[in-house]
Design goal:
The protein is mainly α. The protein contains four helices and no strands. The relative contact order is 0.21.
């Protein structure tokens, strides 16, 4: 697995532009990104649920996102 594929899956799940995929830091927390989208009134498009589904479908990784401190790096390591 490569980081580019992982980041594409992430930005697609969050309905973000693929051109911004590498703007994220490994230390970025998934919940912080989700919360930022909510502050911009983008509405809940079930981003976390879709990302969760895609992580399991593509990498076999089950993530509940109960831990609000989980980072992109944590998930990338777990999926590798």
């Amino acid at each position: 697995m490569d980081v580019q594929t992982f980041l594409r899956l992430f930005v697609d799940s969050f309905a973000l532009s693929r051109t911004n995929a590498f703007a994220f830091s490994p230390d970025d927390k998934v919940w912080d990104i989700y919360d930022a989208q909510q502050r911009w009134n983008l509405g809940d498009m079930l981003q976390l649920e879709w990302f969760q589904h895609e992580l399991e479908r593509v990498y076999g990784l089950r993530e509940s996102f109960e831990n609000r401190d989980v980072t992109l790096a944590d998930l990338f390591r777990a999926a590798s």
